[in-house]
Each structure stands twice: as structure tokens, then as C-alpha cells.
Design brief:
232 residues, alpha/beta, FAD/NAD(P)-binding domain, 3-stranded antiparallel β-sheet, 12 strands
């Protein structure tokens, strides 16, 4: 079976590795000129890989209906990614707050593990390839995927995995393209909201003077000036 993966971040690379391991011919499409661009800046360049907490805690800390992801969490756990990295020759360490980092403190080493495995499995990687449409056809009331339309032409496929990420960092490629592709197929996408955002103040110099500060074990209290409601 020919499988196309759209998106060359961690989830896209792992999906490509998984599909290829199962014997499928895999093509990994990435619109940037490299894989894992956002991965390289995570954890301030050290890559906070995962957490050592149990999977039940993952579910509890997932916004909305965490149980919806129960099967996904169970099929590939935090221990599975740690084992994968170890098999590629990279050891990990645990730090404060149950955070798992590579012992080298270099996100590039984590990315290299993915790339090493992709090469080993001979996964075809196409860079600078922007997917503009997922192509389908209808057979007896069943809609089937037939390929994708890109800036480099049409590519045929039997299955497609959409792994474009969210809309958190456009400079790294995460600009919300996946939502558009999903809408084209008829999916309903709820309003997306940011989870990590900068602080803004009427006195802009105050925020500027705090740029770059790393604070530990702190809490912030916000007060709505109209309702006087407090948020912790």
C-alpha cells in the first residue's frame, strides 16, 4: 500500500516510521526545507521529549475530553518514545516536574534519531512540497482517497495521514494548513485557541524589562478590570 504523510514534524516522522515498518511504501511530504524545524526549538533547544507520569495522568491533563485519546495514548506511550530513542543510541534523563530530556541536552540529537530511522527504512522524503488539496473519489457512496495535489504536481496514494500540527508557530511551518485540508474534506473544525501566549501590559516597558526571565514555582493572579473577577 502507498501511504502519504503530510507534515514532517515528530508525529509525521513517527507515522512514516510506523507505516514503513508495517511494509507500506511511504512518502513523507514537508513544505519546509527540513524536517522537525519546530522540534529543534522545543525546551529552549533541549527538547522536552515527554513526561514520566503515567498515561492516566496524560488523559487527566488533556483539555476537553481526554478519554477520547485513550486508545492513542495506550498504543504509543511515553515509555515507547523513550525506548525508540534508546534503540537509536540516545539516552534520556528525568528532570524536575517529571520532564524527560535527552542526556546531551540537544534537540538536534532527538531529530537525528528520527532521520536515522527514516533513512534506514528508505522512506521517501519530499521537501519544499506544499499540499494544497487531498484528492478523493466516490465509489458506491464510499469516499476514497486517491492522492494529493501539491505545488510540485499530483501524487497518487492509497492512504493519507494528516500530521501538519496546529497553528502555533508559522515560521516553523505550523500555520494551520491542516485545518484547511480537513475542511476541504467536509470535517468541522471548531474555533482554535492559543494555549501558550505572551503577556501584554498597558505599561509596555514593564513587559519588555522581563523578557527572557525564567521563573520557577510561581503563580499569576489576573483580575478582570470590568467584572473584578479573579483568575489564578
Amino acid at each position: 500500500m502507498k501511504v502519504i504523510i503530510i507534515g514532517g514534524g515528530p508525529s509525521g516522522m513517527m507515522a512514516a516510521i510506523s507505516a514503513s515498518t508495517q511494509g507500506h511504501k511511504v512518502i513523507l511530504l514537508e513544505k519546509m526545507n527540513m524536517l522537525g524545524k519546530k522540534l529543534l526549538i522545543t525546551g529552549k533547544g533541549r527538547c522536552n521529549i515527554t513526561s514520566s507520569l503515567g498515561m492516566e495522568e496524560f488523559i487527566k491533563n488533556t483539555p476537553g475530553n481526554g478519554k477520547f485519546l485513550y486508545s492513542s495514548y495506550k498504543n504509543f506511550t511515553n515509555q515507547d518514545i523513550i525506548q525508540f530513542l534508546k534503540e537509536q543510541g540516545l539516552e534520556v534523563k528525568e528532570e524536575r516536574g517529571n520532564r524527560i530530556f535527552p542526556v546531551t541536552d540537544k534537540s538536534q540529537d532527538v531529530l537525528n534519531c528520527f532521520i536515522k530511522k527514516l533513512k534506514e527504512l528508505k522512506v521517501e522524503i519530499m521537501y519544499n512540497t506544499q499540499v494544497t488539496k487531498i484528492l478523493t473519489k466516490k465509489e458506491q457512496d464510499i469516499v476514497k482517497v486517491v492522492g494529493v495535489q501539491t505545488n510540485n504536481g499530483t501524487i497518487q496514494a492509497d492512504k493519507i495521514i494528516l500530521a501538519t500540527g496546529g497553528k502555533s508557530y508559522p515560521l516553523t511551518g505550523s500555520n494551520g494548513d491542516g485545518y484547511k485540508l480537513a475542511k476541504q474534506l467536509g470535517h468541522i473544525v471548531k474555533e482554535i485557541k492559543p494555549s501558550l501566549v505572551p503577556l501584554e501590559s498597558y505599561q509596555k516597558d514593564e513587559c519588555k524589562s522581563m523578557q527572557g526571565l525564567s521563573l520557577k514555582n510561581v503563580a499569576i493572579k489576573l483580575i478582570d478590570i470590568e467584572t473584578r473577577k479573579k483568575y489564578l
